[in-house]
Specification:
Elements: H1 3-15, H2 28-32, H3 57-62, E1 65-66, H4 67-71, H5 74-77, H6 83-87, E2 88-90, E3 96-99, H7 106-111, H8 114-139, H9 147-162, H10 170-201
Antiparallel strand pairs: 1-3, 2-3
Helix pairs in contact: 1-10, 8-9, 9-10
């Protein structure tokens, strides 16, 4: 399991939260029911299967993007409400649309859109806040500091900061930091501490 997977399991258990297709509070009466007979196999209580990828035969044969597929991106349209009509238009057949800009221009159309740039700025602001709060901790590492305590403080603050971000999985951001810690950062921190220890142990010259 990745660091983010372990953290999410612990958080979910500690907070006793129910998350669709991930966690559920199951009463003892359901576990002891004869159909379960105290079997704790998770699929008995949580349906974590992914929905089937429905193929639209009419769309394949006559062209067009099914509106239901576009509707499935509702979590984006709620944040970028005017972006959908910029990208899609009716194909002239009920229930189907087509792209308005050429495929090669879609990325530029999204990245330059005012709602997207505002969203991007809000995420950058969160990261800047986290950086400002934690840069002194990194700059002020002392020889007696514990690196594991440091990364725990940094990562927990990062996770809490990005819980406020829309569309972004805070645990994914947490994983990026933990990967960087494992690959690079922890060696730098330990190396800095060794240098600090040597500087304190060096004899003074008069």
């Amino acid at each position: 399991m990745r660091a983010q997977d372990i953290h999410r399991v612990v958080d979910t258990f500690t907070r006793q939260v129910e998350i669709p297709k991930y966690s559920r509070m199951v009463p003892l009466s359901e576990i002891s029911d004869p159909k379960n007979d105290f079997n704790l196999n998770l699929p008995r209580y949580i349906d974590c299967t992914e929905p089937d990828d429905l193929q639209d035969i009419d769309g394949h044969l006559r062209g067009g993007i099914p509106d239901r597929d576009i509707d499935d991106l509702d979590r984006y349209w709620r944040i970028f409400p005017s972006l959908r009509p910029l990208l899609f238009e009716s194909i002239g057949r009920p229930g189907y649309s087509r792209l308005k800009p050429p495929v090669a221009d879609i990325k530029a159309a999204i990245f330059s859109h005012a709602e997207f740039t505002a969203f991007n700025a809000s995420v950058a602001t969160l990261f800047a806040q986290w950086t400002a709060a934690n840069a002194p901790r990194l700059a002020g590492i002392a020889k007696d500091d514990h690196p594991k305590t440091l990364i725990e403080t940094l990562s927990e603050d990062l996770l809490e900061t990005f819980r406020k971000a829309r569309l972004i999985n805070a645990y994914d951001i947490y994983q990026h930091l933990m990967d960087f810690w494992a690959e690079t950062m922890q060696d730098d921190v330990y190396d800095r501490q060794r240098r600090l220890e040597r500087s304190h142990q060096a004899p003074a010259h008069h």
